[in-house]
Amino acid sequence: MSLCTIRRAHRAGDWAGWARQQVAERFGRAGYELHFTVYGRNAILGEREPLKERQAHELGIVVQGIAPTKAVAKEVCMIATRQMFYARLPQVKGTAGGVAFVLDEVMPASPAYRWTLNHTMRLDDPLALFPTFVTEAGV
Amino acid sequence: MPSRKLSELAKTIRSKNAGVDKITFDIIFPDRATYDWVRESGVLSCAAVCRIFDIDAAEITDHVEFDLALAIKFTIYRRMPSGSPGDVDIFGSQQYGPLLDVNVPEG
After folding, report:
1. If 0-12 CB within 10 Å is exposed, 13-18 middle and 19+ buried, where does residue A46 land?
2. How far apart are the C-alpha atoms of A84 and A95, rounded to whole Å?
3. Which of A7, A16, A43, A134 has the most C-beta neighbours closer than 10 Å?
4. Is the CB of residue A2 less than 8 Å from the CB of residue A106?
5. Residues of chain B neighbouring A114 (CB-CB closer than 8 A)
6. Which residue range forms the structural domain that includes residue A7?
7. One digit per residue, pLDDT tens: chain B, 107 residues?
């Protein structure tokens, strides 16, 4: 994952769209996942946010790359983040970097699993799988 | 009609994962009178919870008014299992925001 910050917050979606397109041109659209979490714009609650109308002028964007290998995850994340920096968008006046970096690198997260199975069972008798018995010992 | 915000009336408003695919909410009140007032107002009924969180009734798995604890508790399904790619609140600990400004009409 990596992090950048951006001003003119209401247009942040354009940067993410640009970056996603740039990654797709290099890697195609399959074999990895990219997630852009825009902190300062309904990041926690999403559609359930009751204060959607309040707009920040500055946002933090966390970019996450997920792939079967660490190398690919790192590469797509790096390109996505850098391409937000390089984005050529009509409303961007600056040409030397459209976002600000705290650091120009990708921070690795630990290997992870995806939750796919609910390890619970429906039983008529909740004790069916836990047989108990009483015995006498040491008498 | 004059009203008070839930955040002014409740002692605790919180959310937390309940297993991997649900989030549970607790709203705990300081005294019986406040608990009864909010409970009877219906602002935290199942129908109200559906409106507040923009969900269907089928997405609420439990809804309990627990007199002994002066608490109203409900549990809803997560939008995705905890820790899935794209999940931004892996412990479900900040999902109670929409409850804070719920208006409770004065009796």
Report:
1. middle
2. 12
3. A16
4. yes
5. 84-85
6. 2-101
7. 789 999 999 999 999 999 999 999 999 999 999 999 999 999 999 999 999 999 999 999 999 999 999 999 999 999 999 988 889 999 999 999 999 999 999 97
Q: Do A115 and B82 touch (CB under 8 A)?
A: yes
**Residue numbers in A near B95 (CB within 8 A):** 44-45, 48
Cross-chain residue pair A48–B98, CB shorter than 8 Å: yes
Interchain pair B101, A47: CB under 8 A = no
Domains of chain A: total: 1
Instruction: Quote ipTM for the complex.
Output: 0.76
Q: Please say whether the dihedral angle defined by the alpha carbons of residues B90, B12, B58 and B68, taken in this order, is positive or negative.
A: positive
By three-state DSSP, how is residue A44 classified? coil
For the segment A27-69, what is each residue's pLDDT rounded down to a tens digit?
999 999 999 998 988 889 988 898 888 888 899 999 999 999 9
Give the tens place of pLDDT for each residue, B61-90: 999 999 999 999 999 999 999 988 889 999
d(CA A136, CA B92): 48
**Residue carrying the six token digits 């002028």:** A57
Q: Residue A96 is part of a domain; what is its CATH number?
A: 3.30.70
User: Rounded CA gap, A15 and A4, in Å?
Assistant: 11
Interface of B with A in 23-82 (CB under 8 A): 53-54, 79, 81-82
* Cβ contact A43–B88 (<8 Å): yes
Residue A34 resides in a domain: yes
Q: A22 in a domain, yes or no? A: yes
Report yes or no on A41 lying in a domain. yes
In a domain, A67, yes or no: yes
